[in-house]
Amino acid sequence: MSRKNRSRSERKSPLWVVMGLAYSLAAVVVLVGFLSKPDGEKNEPGITEQILSYSGFTRVIEQTEAAFYNQLARREVDDIDNRDQLDQKTKEIASRINAQFFLGNKLGLSGPYSFSYLQDQMQMENAQRKLDKKNGKALYGPEQFDIYSYYQYVASNLEVRIIEYLAANADESLLQQARAYFEENKALYNHAEQIVYSITDQGNTEKHTIDWGQLSSLNNADSELAEILRVGKVGQTFSYTFGDLQRTGEIISRTDVQTDFEQQQIAITSDFLKSGYYKQLLQEISDHNAVVFSEK
């Protein structure tokens, strides 16, 4: 067929070519849009990754603050006359304290740390306590703090808040470690909801039922029996001395509560942090954010 005899439908109009290219380009743009997230929707680093990324901060410690850490160190070393040991412990304490306040500030749980600020806050607290005592209000803790007791008061409260925050905002890395901790320590979380047991005392046998909460009260009155019931198995017989009496008994039945990690996730993660991981995080922070003692 000659070129002159080709129909209009067989000829490609320049307009159709342009429109086809435009549609193809639009499809590519849409596809890229689906595959990529806006900046605001990008995955943020988890809390563990954020903490481990804190680095490059250096804080200079002046002599007054160094003396404070040195006094704390004297309470922890075996031989205060061993200068090298005392200096090392002083540096460890200074690094640990600064790491905790640094972390608290990064998480928005405390202001920037300085020793002078700590002293100012103590004076304000003491002034308020003096006024409260004058007005007859109840005081919890000492009537007046010294700098050492006030530091312990502030630091312990900050540690509680940090651990609560980390447990409530745990990322997958932290949760995986908390799950592993839970699996290794299930016995700490599974307990008896109700125990039925018998006690034979001077020839008389009585049947009793006790729940987990009542075990604490029993522990005060009869600690040996409480421990037997806490860890004993169904059908187990036992004997023990209570005062001048020899008692025997049997665990008849028990209903156990099996703790689920997902239901107790925050509490278990908090326990994991307290078990030593929180101190590891502080060590990581102190390793990458130095404290330097002034030579003046």
What tags apply to this protein structure?
296 residues; elongated; single chain
List the helices and strands and how they pair.
Layout: H1 14-35, H2 47-53, E1 59-61, H3 63-74, H4 83-106, H5 115-134, H6 147-168, H7 172-184, E2 191-201, E3 204-211, H8 212-221, H9 223-231, E4 237-242, E5 245-257, H10 265-288, E6 291-293
Parallel strand pairs: 1-6
Antiparallel strand pairs: 2-3, 2-5, 4-5
Helix content: 55-70%
Strand order of the largest sheet: 3-2-5-4
Biggest sheet, open or closed, and with what strands and sense? Answer: 4 strands, antiparallel
Rounded average pLDDT = 86
Unreliable runs, pLDDT <50, ≥5 residues? 1-12, 28-37
Assign an overall shape.
elongated
What Rg, in angstroms, do the CA atoms define? Answer: 33 Å
Q: What's the total number of strands?
A: 6
What is the CA-CA span between the terminal residues?
101 Å
Structural class: alpha+beta
Number of helices: 10
How much of the polypeptide forms β-strand, as a percent range?
Answer: 5-15%
Structure description:
Helix content is 55%, strand content 15%. It is built from ten helices and six strands, in the order H-H-E-H-H-H-H-H-E-E-H-H-E-E-H-E. The chain has helices at 14-35, 47-53, 63-74, 83-106, 115-134, 147-168, 172-184, 212-221, 223-231, 265-288; strands spanning 59-61, 191-201, 204-211, 237-242, 245-257, 291-293. The strands form two sheets. It has a four-stranded antiparallel beta sheet with strand order 3-2-5-4. A two-stranded parallel ribbon has the order 1-6. The longest helix has 24 residues, at 83-106. It starts with 13 loop residues before the first helix and ends with a strand. The model is unreliable at 1-12 and 28-37 (pLDDT under 50).
